[in-house]
Amino acid sequence: MTLQEEYSATTEEKQRALAELRNIKADFSGRGWFPGTSGNLSIRVGAYAPTRFQFAVTSSGRDKSAQTPEDFLFVDESGRPCEATALKPSAETLIHCEIYRLTGCGAVFHVHTVFNNLISEWFAERGSVPVDAVELIKAFNIWDQDARIDVPIVPNYADIPSIVPEITAALDPRIPGVLLRNHGIYAWGANAFEAKRHLEAFEFLFEYAYRMELLKGSARRG
Ligand SMILES: CSCCC(=O)C(=O)COP(=O)(O)O
Ligand SMILES: [Zn+2]
């Protein structure tokens, strides 16, 4: 068996990943989480080693509220298509590659929302969004009484490869997500179910943090 064959998935596994991605794309689109063709999704398939893996990823620049046969393609650990295709992988595929390499996770989801953009800008100088003693922190499998977490924020650059080392440096193994400043969130999990749970929890916590900052501001003004 060649290395290529060893790490590529069965046809059934690939079809399952595509079906799951289609459902998640439709679900997130219904929430308005892909404005203006933004956002990208991926699910890993086949065997995994940090230096060798494959995943299905959304193709670049497409209307993510539409379902078409051109929505996804399979790429390898360096973000290159691993099957003959005219499709272009997401412009942010290298970020997915790095998250898989660092964490060994099974799915990575990226969305742009007003709350994740506002909160990343508000706390940009601090380098993280603090969240204190909110029950939904448990969605990250953090069960400490009154847990406090810091969601990392990294700079956003037009040149995507320049973002990769920022993610490498900022990633906290306890926190399954990272914010790109004034851009969006990357959230991941062992599989699509877990990545979706994490993404939903992040979005709840960002809205909570945003509204809490407003309340504190109005309390200070009297
Ligand atoms: C139109 S949003 C700018 C690109 C972006 O941030 C994004 O998430 C979508 O890029 P893709 O290449 O994955 O379509
Ligand atoms: Zn983006």
TrEMBL record:
Cofactor note text: Binds 1 zinc ion per subunit.
Catalytic activity: 5-(methylsulfanyl)-D-ribulose 1-phosphate = 5-methylsulfanyl-2,3-dioxopentyl phosphate + H2O
Cofactor(s) needed: Zn(2+)
Domain Class II aldolase/adducin N-terminal: 19-210
Coiled coil: none
Pfam families linked to this entry: Aldolase_II
Pathway note: Amino-acid biosynthesis; L-methionine biosynthesis via salvage pathway; L-methionine from S-methyl-5-thio-alpha-D-ribose 1-phosphate: step 2/6
Binding-site positions, Zn(2+): 110, 112
Molecular function via GO: methylthioribulose 1-phosphate dehydratase activity; zinc ion binding
InterPro entries noted in UniProt: Aldolase_II/adducin_N, Aldolase_II/adducin_N_sf, MethylthioRu-1-P_deHdtase_MtnB
Example GO biological process: L-methionine salvage from methylthioadenosine
SMART domains named in the record: Aldolase_II
Classification via SUPFAM superfamilies: AraD/HMP-PK domain-like
Documented EC number(s): 4.2.1.109
Keyword field: Amino-acid biosynthesis, Lyase, Metal-binding, Methionine biosynthesis, Zinc
GO CC entries: cytoplasm
HAMAP family, per the entry: Salvage_MtnB
Function summary: Catalyzes the dehydration of methylthioribulose-1-phosphate (MTRu-1-P) into 2,3-diketo-5-methylthiopentyl-1-phosphate (DK-MTP-1-P).
Stated family: Belongs to the aldolase class II family. MtnB subfamily.
NCBIfam families xrefs: salvage_mtnB (TIGR03328)
Protein name: Methylthioribulose-1-phosphate dehydratase
Gene name, Swiss-Prot/TrEMBL: mtnB
